[in-house]
Amino acid sequence: MKPTRAGAVAAVVSGIPSTAHALFTGGDVLAATRAAGTLLPGRRDRPGVAAGLIAHVAVSAFWTGVLATIARHRRLGAGGGAVAGLAIAALDLGIAARAHPAVRGLPRGPQILDHLVFGAVTGALLDRPGRADQGTTSTTSPGCSEL
């Protein structure tokens, strides 16, 4: 699957853990989105949903690019992607939490799970063949379809 599509799918589903946590605990479902908005320059103290969506897309695109680059050289799969997601969480949450109070105030566990899901989904989808490759079933000539 193309990195753009894999990253888009992962960016959407990666918020499920923190959203579920917020729903089950009576928390603010949009808190993480607003907190992400503070990552944009000039918005450190001004959380917002629109800014959060922009920041989330930018951060997801960046990490998708990193994972796609890794996936070109070694297969990630869901497991490798999950490990990468945990490493991304350490970087994202460690750095962002220090500099951005809104990020620091988020429950840590659900945020880590969001990153784990992002990595696992991205890794799994990057390993899937694209549409053009789905007909390549020949074991003797890779890339040639059987008649």
Report a brief summary of the structure.
The protein is 68% helix and 0% strand.
Key descriptive features of the protein:
globular; mainly alpha; 147 residues; 7 helices
Task: Give an overview in words.
With 147 residues, the chain is mainly alpha-helical. The chain is built from seven helices and no strands. The chain has helices at residues 3-13, 16-25, 31-37, 49-73, 77-99, 101-104, 108-127. Helix 4 (49-73) crosses helix 7 (108-127) and helix 5 runs antiparallel to helix 7. The relative contact order is 0.18. Mean pLDDT is 87; it is low at 133-138.
| Main beta-sheet annotation | none
Instruction: Give the amount of beta strand, in percent.
Output: under 5%
Derived structural class: mainly alpha
| Unreliably modeled segments | 133-138
Individual helix count: 7
Radius of gyration: 18 Å
What's the helical proportion of residues? Answer: 55-70%
Q: Can you count the beta strands?
A: 0
What do the pLDDT scores average to? 87
**Bulk shape:** globular
Distance between the termini: 24 Å
User: What's the helix-strand series?
Assistant: HHHHHHH
Describe how the helices and strands are arranged:
Layout: H1 3-13, H2 16-25, H3 31-37, H4 49-73, H5 77-99, H6 101-104, H7 108-127
